[in-house]
Amino acid sequence: MEKGKKEFTSPLHRQQIFWQVWVPLIGGIFIVLILSILFFASSSSNVVETGRFADISIILITIPFLIVFLFFLTFFALLIFGIYKLTVVIPQLSFKLYMYVVIACDFVRLWSDRIVAPLITTRSWLSKIGRIFSIFNPHLK
Hints:
The protein has 2 helices and no strands. The chain has one domain (17-140). The radius of gyration is 45 Å and the shape is elongated. It has helices spanning 11-45, 47-136. It is an all-alpha fold. Helix content is 89%, strand content 0%.
């Protein structure tokens, strides 16, 4: 905001602030004051009624906590059940994956042996022939 400029609020905005902020704030303060006056008046006049209202207020306070606790209890129960199911399923899936890896390993080993076999047999035949010639001609070693 630049220096020297003032913000002007419209009358409609001031009216909205009054009805949306100040009226609920003042109403809430009056409700709290009225309830506190009623509490003090009832506690000084009739002790039995105060005990009954205390019991009612304890019930009204604990019900939301019980509902939240029940929600978290079901959430954790479902979480524990899900982890149990995973511990049952994961070893089976791991074994299947292991079997596929073994099959792939055997496939690669078979085909690599088949590819290299002609080279190995050719080299072995050449070694045999070379050995035979070296027996007859000692200078070829």
